[in-house]
């Protein structure tokens, strides 16, 4: 039952339609709050029920202390959930398994259905195998369907079987760009008990770059799959009221700079400021001059500087973009009226309370790229060639320390898992400052190779991949038209891309192709090899496909340090391509420029890109389009009809999608032979009532770990090794090693994922000193085994398991399989020095008990070796659970007792744990209701 303790319920009339709203001005202190916290405040007011959301939650947010690093906990209820296919498939698998369980318990299976809209976009699976050919798009699309048909059949079935569940088929676009251009409402409406209710559009997404929609004034961020599943089933999300950093913008971008230059500067600035786990709000007089697409680019990169979100307020620019992208006129009027009524409309001179204020004059932005390993390591364009020579000469470069934001960012691929790093952990080296006044002697070692009928030379520092890719930049018509115009001028001057460069164009939506075609720029891009390869993430998530064969051989045989240049958002070594050590982020026009030169050694500000047919040098400034030229083309060729027509059949897909054989009915027909999708065992043996909570007795330690163990250590997302338990499983099921794919793509099959749990090759288990990887010892015999094999043996022996770890356990990406795999291995509890917040929540969500050493205690100080028997005493028969429990440690007949803190912090978390996890809890609630 909804409460209205603050008398906030009111009405708003727009176009003779009346909406119920919850007025923020009824809460004392609301006007001083930053934009992002006002959105959270409305969320609390509207969802107040006296139990999960209380008046105290509302009051605590109204009285927010911007300086406090430890604010109260609140419950957040998003309006919708956004997913991509890598992270979305396991969520759908869980929902399908819940339907099976509901049926077996005598309930109605269709009651298992999202309670809020869920939108899943298939964008993570297309690979740029074919390129530089008009046939590339068709070839890559066909390969994508062949490789992923099992996964796509599940999603196609879900599209039919679930209500309020939209699946955007493959080869349509990237989830964040489609969210920006089509899905986002800015102001959401839903039927309520008293008529339609209007409220801010909010969301959580199972992809790290969900904050891209912050550019529209829509609050949203990335979460793990367990949190997303809970949200779609109507459960609020627990979160601490964050600190909010205000980034004040003044001035305007100078001629010759792009949105990419701005966002790389902001990433550098905010990494230095340290905004991990905080909200960032843009404000000030400069906001009005920032185009919506540029705002979206800034929001998109928020994971790279560590903030939860990076949001702009609603203003005229927001309305203009909604109009451009074909939203209805009534919706636009509703957005304007609601924002002004609620104090969410941008006021240039208003300065809310912020935890910290940072200022940036847009006039100071200069052309830049970032790399070669971290997105915050910005290099002014004039310093690039010297910086690259310095790197090749062996100049020291700061490396990220394990466990910090850099590590989380790096290990989020290829699945693009949202990051989850404690804000108090400062382990990352600051952004690097490059000097452009030093010359270096670098190890030139040119290799001759034959390419396209000519002899070419490849050396250290040469560019082998140039990719216009990623929603980060392809959502921005200004930089994309800029790239097209630069290509046109380059072709007209007789320039061509170097033959050793793999070129590709992978926009985030079909609208980009429409305005390229309409403006006549497509032929010029294709002349330079930038043919369409697909609508998806491609190179930005490592789906760059093979290098040109001759180039690949030369790189491997001569150990060349070569480079990729891409218009993406992340660039860690080995992420773009396993053979490419240096990766640079750049605007789309600069991607083309580097394809023309084929080398990072070229000083683009002073060296020629090449020569025209008469032998005259052609410089970048000769072909760089002016702001006025770009604006003219954009204005002439971009119109709302492109968006309305392009998205009119967004869920239909092509003939391959529509022609798939998909089972009918409310229950999914599992295929026992599938190696991608299997029914998970979470609900096996489940009863209508939960069994009583029991003490954990005589448990063995499966893994004894140190500090800063990340979720990638626990559940890697990358390649599956041939000799790993997961690799052996796939081989036994007839899968060739070349088709193993990644753990990220196989998350719908628990048989693969459980074998991958604790299988990271860098894992260091103290039970096997000197050994790296997924190994442990089985006790009491002490024999070394893989962690999966040991867990299988313990299960056969009915021996429960625990994990012992140090501080910051579970930092990194917000990866639900780090908790799911832990449970399925038979782990009943994790005893750690401290937990990353989201992973602790995920453990509870899977029914695993998080225990924390008392302050001052560590495994070392307590003399623990991991070879003992452990019993956790004091939880059985206690409701509510005690704050602390006793852990009995037995070793060769001798026992000692330690005290541990139960890290179940809220009544809702205790309910989840008592039911064996959040999904059984929800299932039983629906069964009883």
Summarize the structure.
Helix content is 32%, strand content 19%.
How would you describe what is shown here?
Helices cover 32% and strands 19% of the residues. The chain contains 31 helices and 36 strands. Mean pLDDT is 92; it is low at 397-403.
Taking the sheet with the most strands, its summary is: 7 strands, mixed, barrel
Query: Which shape, going by the Cα principal axes?
Result: globular
Structural class: alpha/beta
Intertermini distance: 15 Å
Q: Average pLDDT across residues?
A: 92
Spatial order of the strands in the main sheet? Answer: 27-30-32-33-36-35-34
- The helix tally amounts to 31
Main attributes of the structure:
929 residues; globular; seven-stranded mixed barrel; alpha/beta; 32% helix; 31 helices
Write the layout of secondary structure elements.
Elements: E1 9-14, E2 17-22, H1 35-47, H2 55-62, E3 73-76, E4 80-84, H3 85-104, E5 118-121, H4 136-161, E6 165-168, H5 175-183, E7 187-192, E8 195-200, E9 202-205, E10 219-222, H6 225-232, E11 237-240, E12 244-250, H7 259-273, E13 279-283, H8 292-300, H9 302-305, E14 309-311, H10 316-324, H11 329-341, E15 356-361, E16 368-370, E17 378-380, H12 384-392, H13 405-410, E18 419-420, E19 447-451, E20 454-458, E21 463-469, H14 471-474, H15 477-492, E22 502-506, H16 510-519, H17 522-527, H18 549-558, E23 563-566, E24 582-585, H19 588-597, E25 610-611, E26 617-618, H20 620-623, H21 627-637, H22 640-646, H23 655-658, E27 696-704, H24 711-714, H25 725-732, H26 750-756, E28 775-778, E29 783-786, H27 787-796, E30 801-804, E31 812-813, H28 817-824, E32 827-832, H29 837-845, E33 849-853, E34 869-873, E35 884-891, E36 894-902, H30 907-914, H31 918-928
Parallel strand pairs: 4-5, 4-9, 5-6, 9-10, 12-13, 12-15, 13-14, 21-22, 21-23, 23-24, 27-30, 30-32, 32-33
Antiparallel strand pairs: 1-2, 3-11, 7-8, 16-17, 18-31, 19-20, 25-26, 27-34, 28-29, 33-36, 34-35, 35-36
